[in-house]
Amino acid sequence: MREATWRAGLGEFSDCLLAGVLVALASVPVVTAAPALVAGCRAIERSGRGVGGPLWTTFWADFRAAARGGVVFGGLAVLAAVLFAVDLEVAGSLPGGRVLRPVLGVLAGAALVIAVRTCEVVATGDSVAVSPAMAGAPAPGEADANGPAAARRESASWLRAGLAAARETLAAPGSAALLAGAILLCAVLVWMLPILAFVVPGPLCLAAVATGRRS
Predict the structure, then answer these.
(1) How far does Cα 13 stand from its chain's mean position?
(2) pTM
(3) Which of 12, 16, 147, 149 is buried deepest, with most CB atoms within 10 A?
(4) Is the confidence at residue 189, as pLDDT, over 90?
(5) Residue 187 pLDDT grade (very low, low, confident, very high; cuts 50, 70, 90)
(6) For the CA atoms of the chain, what is the radius of gyration?
């Protein structure tokens, strides 16, 4: 019994590391980081339940399914990060900049937590309905799941997920703090040893799924 538990734990650990590598590779274009996190969270969630096929194949299938709306979300996130960096530099030259900078930092941290939580909500399907295109099937009456209607459904799905993530962050500050701590720890590890950027996305996905479990 103990050996079976040990083997199961080792399998979950290896899946977590493999998911981290796959998320890192899929995030190379930067704007694909959001769908990559979605696929990683789905891989971790399935591994924890012991369902699904080989992680390598299911990850890329999930990544392709999430890429339509996720790339748009990721592009907006990159744009927001650039604007924040500019605002941070401007704030440093304004009167009261020493007070304004920490406030902006807290707001940026909260936005990052909500962004990661949004990916987890899209991945697990909790609190927001997964669109037909996300599930890999066209909607009733839709002949083409890759057309403009599917694109609108994907955008709406990510918008609903973002709103749900914001509500959950406010409703469960403890879980949000744990996720923020995980994000901070991952950032520190990558800062200390950049090669860990190919590993830490896996534990980050694990933290997102673990702190997002709902009753």
Answers:
(1) 19
(2) 0.80
(3) 16
(4) yes
(5) very high
(6) 18
